[in-house]
């Protein structure tokens, strides 16, 4: 199997090293793992692409490239430049340092890369590691993802539907804020929503007296509704959420027909 990996934490992030280990296990001895990742951290850029300016791509080592762009840019660079003569069978994005459950998924560059992979007709999976008191100060924050990731990926790949039209499937996987031994299992769940938790901005003064705004997130340890992603993560389970790039509210279409 030929696998392309990327992330939004940057080419030197420890989570990318964890992802390379997971991908190498999955690819097997005859497989290949290629890396095209942002030269600098790109957290929170979502599905952004560098449409109005070019990006530089630098070869760092064999099958390892850094791109001055977003995670979605990295997917495009990987598919249409670095690996143009032998496209990957799978795209893996992550392992993100911090969860991309609930509303975080909408901001995530990690998810943006997987979404772009799906739009390019390549099976794509995003993986993120929730952080909390049980793993934040651990020597290996990504232990749960390293240990449980390969088996979960094999299960998903074995059951991947044969899709030929429309918006393709991609997956959002979040590992709980636990050590590997603390993981209780896997749950297939929908995306949740953290009530009363929002992104916001906070003003600060620079030493020169100029005012700057910092974007800040909300409490990541407020659970979502029972049976949704962040809720099962905080209960010790890996969440697996199937997603598509189609943003249509299909359930509301018939209700609104009367407005025509």
Automatic annotation (TrEMBL):
It catalyses: a ribonucleoside 5'-phosphate + H2O = a ribonucleoside + phosphate. It comes from the Bacteria. One of its GO terms (cellular component) is cytoplasm. Its EC number is 3.1.3.5. Binds 1 divalent metal cation per subunit. Residues 3-196 form the Survival protein SurE-like phosphatase/nucleotidase domain. A divalent metal cation binds at residues 8-9, 43, 96. It is an enzyme of class 3 (hydrolase). Coiled coil: none annotated. One of its GO terms (molecular function) is exopolyphosphatase activity. The keyword Cytoplasm applies. It is found in: Cytoplasm. Keywords: Cytoplasm, Hydrolase, Metal-binding, Nucleotide-binding. Its cofactor is a divalent metal cation. Nucleotidase that shows phosphatase activity on nucleoside 5'-monophosphates. Belongs to the SurE nucleotidase family. This is 5'-nucleotidase SurE. It comes from Thalassobius vesicularis.
